Amino acid sequence: MYRYYVSFNYRTASGLGLSAADVTVPTRITTAKDVERIRDYFAAKTGYQNLMVLAFSEYGS
């Protein structure tokens, strides 16, 4: 398992927001499709619209 720090922005009814969270995934993030899956996960979990992953960084072991 790989643990990442992920920052993202999003849109709500009251405007734009910026947030960050940890995520653990079974494989390393190596493709745009991997980033899309993380974006979709956070969008479903939070309900935020137009969520965009800005950056991610793998934690060291």
**The CATH C-level class name:** Alpha Beta
How would you state the average pLDDT, rounded? 94
The name CATH uses for the topology is Ubiquitin-like (UB roll)
How much of the polypeptide forms β-strand, as a percent range?
over 45%
Order of helices and strands: EEHE
What kind of sheet is the major sheet?
3 strands, antiparallel
Map the helices and strands.
Elements: E1 2-12, E2 15-25, H1 32-46, E3 49-58
Antiparallel strand pairs: 1-2, 1-3
Task: Report on this structure.
By secondary structure, this protein is α+β, with helices and mostly antiparallel strands. It has one domain: Ubiquitin-like (UB roll) (Roll). Helices cover 25% and strands 52% of the residues. The protein is built from one helix and three strands; from the N terminus they run ββαβ. Strands 2-1-3 form a three-stranded antiparallel beta sheet, covered by helices on one side. Strand 1 and strand 2 form a beta hairpin.
List its salient traits:
single chain, 61 residues, alpha+beta, Ubiquitin-like (UB roll), three-stranded antiparallel sheet, elongated
Outline of this structure?
The protein has one domain: Ubiquitin-like (UB roll) (Roll). It has one helix at residues 32-46; strands spanning 2-12, 15-25, 49-58. By secondary structure, the chain is an alpha+beta fold.
